[in-house]
Amino acid sequence: MNEDLGNSMDIGKLLDEIDRYCIDNSIPNVDKEVGKLFSILIKVSRARNILEIGTGAGYSTIWLAIAARENRGKVLTIEKDSGNAEVAGDYFRKAGFKNVNILKGDALALLQNLDEKFDFVFIDAAKEEYISYIKAIYAKLMKPSLIVADNAISHVDAISDYLDYVRTDKNISSVLIPIRAGLEVSFLS
Predict the structure, then answer these.
(1) Angstrom distance (rounded) from CA 143 to CA 148
(2) pLDDT digits over 132-184, tens only?
């Protein structure tokens, strides 16, 4: 049994099902290696309050939730597309995750009304809004916290303002991990 997937082989099968759904429906998705990296980062950092901006069909959310569960934590995920949010919600119920809450709607509007603090954030939504997301969540980040942004290689031009921001902020250490579409991993101290 793969310990990265928790105690149930059903989770592995469910992840395969979500991955196939994403491929069949042209929904962008991280892969298993990125999911494993999330698991490692969350476990090592002991993150408990996780925010995901851009749920898609929930593949990355499942990986986040597996690690959060081990830390007795929770995941709040935001998805603009109501169809994707419904599909993801169905997958979360199938997985039996009670530590996942999905919000439907525009992330920037929803972030303004959140009072919660987060110690791990995954950003994978509208690329041109990454800079707005980081500014909207900055005051909601615990110290220390990790921020992971997808597409730091594949969409480098679209997220260049975001990359400049996390790479020059004096309270943030940031590094590009050249896995898949590129992950910018940033540590707020």
Answers:
(1) 15
(2) 999 999 999 999 999 999 999 999 999 999 999 999 999 999 999 999 999 99
Chain centroid to Cα 93, Å, comes to 18
The string over 93-124, giving b where at least 16 C-beta atoms fall within 10 Å of a residue's C-beta and e elsewhere, is ebbebebbebbbeebbebbeeeeeebbbbbbb
In 7-129, alpha helices (H): 9-24, 32-45, 59-70, 82-95, 107-112
Tokens of 8: 């149930």
Enumerate long-range contacts of 166-172, CB under 8 Å, 24 or more apart.
Answer: 166/134, 172/147
Task: Provide the number of structural domains found in the chain.
Answer: 1
pTM tops 0.70:
yes
User: How far is it, in rounded angstroms, from Cα 60 to Cα 50?
Assistant: 12
Q: For residue 56, give its domain range.
A: 3-188
CATH code, domain carrying 88: 3.40.50.150
Sign, Cα dihedral of 110, 164, 42, 28: positive
Residue 127 near residue 154, CB atoms below 8 Å: no
The tokens of 80 are what?
A: 């603009």
For the chain, helix, strand, coil in percent to 5 are 45, 25, 30
